[in-house]
Design a protein that fits this description.
Enolase-like, domain 1, globular, alpha+beta, Ubiquitin-like (UB roll), Uridine Diphospho-n-acetylenolpyruvylglucosamine Reductase, domain 3, 17 strands, five-stranded antiparallel β-sheet
């Protein structure tokens, strides 16, 4: 397959092989050795490149996905006039030691600074959270990025070149699924490519990039339609989602690192069906419906029925999850709490999404969903029904929480992990219901 893309400001093209990663293409086809393999599972950040000025892990990016896009490596910062001001700041502040992480760190910093004129420390830390450094302890790196943003001697708005790419059609994907048994649909690839490497095998993929029908967020009556290839970053930042499904926006902002959020998609998160998936609890409280399409047929199924077991869904081999429909909530307080081993790059050990509507201290409606505790995320409907019309007072809250904990044990028995999960969950739900 031949692909064309912009590489460091120049239009290029090359032949790629089946399942070829962008990391390999850049190193072997274009001799760009600054892009290095570290963990190969999307955690360390040494392979970070910019795709359309957003950080991505090239070790988990199929080269076919950059067809028609803009790709930058650290070489983009080079100029005839010497070092880029960002590079100079890294040297001056002592942010470079062994240098292994530096190219990816510079690119992530560059991406931040072309969007944020004056980022604060928290924004800088968040931006580089997907780039690990074992030498500097990060303080020097943060100081370098702070120093670089004040340098006005560089053009922070990159000049973008366009390459016309033939858009794919959803109908072609549905036809390919019918004709090619055993093929796997791939969107972000942040789970599937890791699995492929772990199993030491090569899957046959049907790739979903450049399909406008699958990459949209729009309102349709009282429902919000989310295309299956919408990324976690887009959901986190989208105005509609932030106004009418705030818990989903928050949850998507906690997934992995910035690079993973730029790559991973809502459809992939659902089809993977992990009990710890961050997007599922918020989607459940918004009565999510999964739209499954095959040639000549469209069916809709509630998310609660779509996931049938851990890592297993009811999707058929010739079907495509094309979009998710959710109900927007008005007049509710929404939120999402996640308990994990660390702030970034961590799978949820426990998660709770909620939407609460109350008036004058009376619960009008309570929606609660719990993830990473039972085999599948769930809504405790008995507790939700119990709270309707009740006063927000301690005795009511205590009984409601007791109903949830008792229901979990009935579902799953008394697991060893419940020794710490249930007390933590008790505290979380109590805090939430207290407002």
């Amino acid at each position: 397959m031949k692909i064309s893309f912009v590489l460091n400001g120049n239009k290029v093209e090359c032949e790629i092989e089946k399942n070829e990663r962008l990391l390999y293409t850049l190193r072997e086809k274009f001799s760009i050795k600054s892009v290095k393999e570290g963990c190969a599972i999307g955690e360390c950040g040494t392979c970070t490149v910019l795709i359309d000025n957003e950080p991505h892990y090239s070790c988990l990016t199929l080269s076919s996905k950059v067809n028609g896009h803009d790709v930058k490596t650290v070489e983009f910062l080079n100029s005839k006039n010497g070092l880029h001001p960002l590079q100079e700041a890294f040297i001056k502040e002592g942010a470079v030691q062994c240098g292994y992480c530096t190219p990816g760190m510079l690119l992530t910093a560059y991406s931040l600074l072309i969007k944020e004129k004056n980022p604060d420390i928290n924004k800088i830390k968040e931006a580089i959270s997907g780039n690990l450094c074992r030498c500097t302890g990060y303080k020097q790196i943060v100081d370098a990025i702070k120093a670089a943003h004040s340098n006005k001697n560089w053009d922070i708005i990159p000049k973008k070149q366009e390459i016309e790419v033939l858009k794919k059609k959803k109908e072609d994907i549905l036809k390919a699924l019918t004709e090619n048994k055993g093929y796997k649909v791939i969107a972000g690839g942040t789970d599937l490519l890791v699995k492929e490497r772990k199993e030491e095998r090569k899957y046959n993929y049907i790739e979903l990039s450049n399909i406008d029908d699958l990459n949209m967020i729009k309102e349709e009556g009282d429902r919000i339609l989310i295309g299956a290839t919408v990324t976690h970053t887009d959901l986190n930042k989208n105005e509609i989602i932030n106004k009418k499904a705030k818990s989903l926006a928050i949850a998507c902002g906690t997934i992995g690192s910035p690079q993973i959020r730029n790559m991973g998609t809502i459809g992939g998160n659902l089809v993977n069906a992990s009990p710890a998936a961050d997007s599922i609890p918020p989607l459940l409280i918004h009565d999510a419906i999964c739209v499954l399409e095959s040639l000549g047929r469209i069916k809709e199924i509630p998310l609660s029925d779509f996931i049938v077991a851990p890592y297993k869904t009811s999707i058929e081999e010739n079907e495509l999850l094309s979009c998710i429909k959710i109900t927007g909530l008005y007049g509710y307080e929404e939120g999402y709490e996640k308990v994990a081993k660390r702030a970034s790059l961590a799978i949820a050990r426990l998660s709770v999404a909620w939407a609460i509507k109350e008036k004058n201290g009376i619960f009008e409606d309570v929606r609660l969903s719990i993830g990473s505790c039972t085999p599948m995320p769930f809504r405790p409907k008995d507790m939700e029904n119990f709270l309707k019309g009740k006063k927000r007072e301690e005795s009511v809250i205590k009984e409601a929480v007791s109903m949830v904990l008792k229901g979990i044990i009935e579902k799953s028995g008394m697991r060893p992990s419940y020794r710490y999960k249930l007390p933590v969950l008790d505290g979380l739900i109590t805090k939430i219901l207290r407002g």
